[in-house]
Amino acid sequence: MNTVATPAPSGVPVRESVRGTARSPARTQVRGPAREPAQRETLSVHDLVAERDLTLADLNLVFRLAAEVKASPRSFARALEGKQLALIFEKPSLRTRVSFEVGMTGMGGFAVYLDHAKPRLGERESIKDVARNLERWVDGIAARTFSHSSVAELAGHASIPVINALTDLLHPCQALSDFFTLREKLGTFDGLKLAYVGDGNNMCHSLLTVAAKLGMAMSIATPPGFEPKADIVQDAKAFARESGAAIEILHDPVEAVRGAHAVYTDVWASMGQEHAAHLRAQIFSPYRVTLDLMAAAEPGAFFMHCLPAHRGQEATDEVIDSPQSIVYDQAENRLHVEKALLLLLLEDGRHREGKLERRKQKEAVLAC
How far, in Å, CA of 92 to CA of 95, rounded? Predict the structure, then answer.
């Protein structure tokens, strides 16, 4: 068969004309925005290490962008094209790892997983050296570690944005997702009360700080001796004085949930505390969230849990699986909130430039 293309009236072969159209202008037009993203409003910080560093404007910006991403994911499908994220994980994970990996790939980027269960971050080589190496290869780091100081040190040495994906002290990505979920369900934070029942752990710390900054009322009920850390409470009360939030630290779970629009709990023994799980189960059993305890809250109050849950311990199956439970909505919204954080910190390189400038200034001072 003769395969020579029949000339068109212009004298250009039809086959070449079709290929030429597919090759050039359309592809350039699509990729252009990914190379030079329009600058959007951004965060006041270069890293997300602790919620206390975020302003009220930062919080609202994250929530607005997360809502946009959730409503129209295709609009952001190439927003992080060519960007790379390193995931440093000392602890096992379902929601955190999947949401960050899917978040990056869903916006055209890529995530590389670094298993630091053994050795932990800083044991094989210094955290400074890890940071200075990674900044040459990737555009950002999300770190999930035991020690909070490891993430803080990583952020201090790296010229790229660092996101706290959980430490023993704080869990900011989960807390931001939780308040985004509440706003999605209730439409506002005004006049709302959140009750937390259980261990005054990292989840409690993060929720307390964000609630105080948002001006929400929050009551916490723990067994005596298991209250949130005093410095976290002190900071939260200072934020509350500015925002009008009401903070209560109690020991009676019924009193804590009275008037609450949402009741939150978490595991009684966090990762690394498994050796004390049996003893803690005895101490915390009066703080189990049951249908009776939920009935003491506002009618229709939501049940919240960051997951994973130890069913039958901190909460009963009837509560976790009830129509009032929004635990899976919380889990889903991890993806949308983290995509918003990645966009704000990685998209146009401003935060990397800001950290590099800060490093130059520091080095100049030390050189004097």
Answer: 10
